[in-house]
What we know:
Layout: H1 2-18, H2 20-27, E1 86-87, E2 113-120, E3 125-126, E4 130-133, H3 144-148, E5 151-153, E6 156-160, E7 166-169, H4 171-184, H5 192-205, E8 216-226, E9 238-249, E10 261-265, H6 290-298, E11 303-308, E12 313-317, E13 320-327, E14 333-337, H7 348-360, E15 364-367, H8 372-380, E16 384-391, E17 395-404, E18 407-410, H9 420-432, E19 441-443
Parallel strand pairs: 1-4, 10-11, 10-17, 14-15
Antiparallel strand pairs: 2-3, 2-4, 2-9, 5-8, 6-7, 6-8, 7-19, 8-9, 11-12, 12-13, 13-14, 13-16, 16-17, 17-18
Helix pairs in contact: 4-5
The chain binds pyridoxal-5'-phosphate.
EC number: 2.6.1.42
Pfam families: Aminotran_4 (PF01063)
Keywords: Amino-acid biosynthesis, Aminotransferase, Branched-chain amino acid biosynthesis, Pyridoxal phosphate, Transferase
Amino acid sequence: MKCLQRLTTTHLLRRVLENQHKFIQLLQQQQVRSCSTGRLQEAIKPEDEDYPQLKTIDPSTSYYPTSKPFKHAPEVGDQFTHSQLAVRLAAPHQLHPKPDADDLVFGKHFTDHMLKIAYHRRLGGWQKPEIMPMENLVLHPAAKVFHYAVELFEGMKAYRGVDGRIRIFRPEMNMARMNASAQRSGLPTFEGDEFIKCMSRLVTIDQEWVPHTEAASLYLRPTLIGIEPTLGVASSDSALLYTILSPVGGYFTAGATSMGVSLLADPRYTRAWPGGVGDRKMGSNYAPTIQIQKEATAQGLQQVLWLYGEDHQVTEVGTMNFFMLMVNEQGERELITPPLNGLILPGITRDSILHLARDWKQFKVTERTITMFEVKKALYENRILEMFGAGTACVVSPIERIYYMGENLMIPTLDHDEPVWKQICTTLTDIQYGKIKHPWGVTID
Length: 445
Ligand SMILES: Cc1ncc(COP(=O)(O)O)c(C=O)c1O
């Protein structure tokens, strides 16, 4: 009986602590404030008969997650598990006010907690995961991350669905990509499923930060850095894996009228090269792009279209994968994206679009090299229909204009009544916000 009483008290105490932000606000006679505009409630519910339901998905289709067990190098040592997770909740004075979903600027606001997992080879490998109040990191100035950019990261989102449940999108793919980046950086690899469970707990604790609107979401930034305080260019025997959360607005919501983007395509600059790390999500890939983005902005253009090689191959657009819908030389409609040849980041949105489009069977779907010569020729022959970038941040971003070698190439992406980019955007966001039941939308509660 005593044991039962203690259990109930512990359980109650935990509930109180996890919901402390609500109690404090109630005590202050305020309405419970969450990242909300209330727009979600107006959204069409999945049970509405007008809402297009996706066909029942056959478990043998490629939509089902296929996370293969990761093969760690023996020297990595012990792995962490989510069952070791320790939670230290923020004290009332450490809680931050939540911004309105309408005022969200990408990556500016952060939630109350973070997840940290240390790695020390001399202590046997990965240490116990810990959720704690958001805090600054204290690192030795010689830490390898500061000198040789021993750093990698991921970008994922948690969405509050129309059913009120929180979902993340194909997280096993982020984990596979993160481990691939860790391997290339000489950083320790980890069990992706365990890390997903730890991050899900973090999101659950900070759940009121997941915007109550389809126009926004909670961005997850898992990061892995080498922290060994020695200046040798060598693998780091100590590392820190952490996740911070930031509520972010959508670039635009599906169905909304949106403007196409304009691009600078300058063959003097390249983002990735064969044998390099363009296919890994490492911080060192991004710093050298900042000046070129500034140049594009100075020319009144919004993003950079990254080219490679003497034949000016189109690789990526800004921090998105590139897609082109055209009528090919044989007169067929064809959706094309550059192949995963080492120059291209294997985007989760890219992979999802390829799966959906192949399943729709409305047009040919191809992964092949596209050159600016082909783009120009097809454009003059009126065979280009749409171009768009695709990524977690904006889902799909239609392209309207490319400034290339002194010429403005006008792309008719926005000239169609029912464009493919919009069909893709709607389907993906419907899965993410739970309007379409789909194995890619993983509920975390
Ligand atoms: C260079 C680059 N390409 C493509 C993408 C799109 O990848 P994902 O769809 O996984 O967000 C990103 C964003 O992560 C990126 O940084």
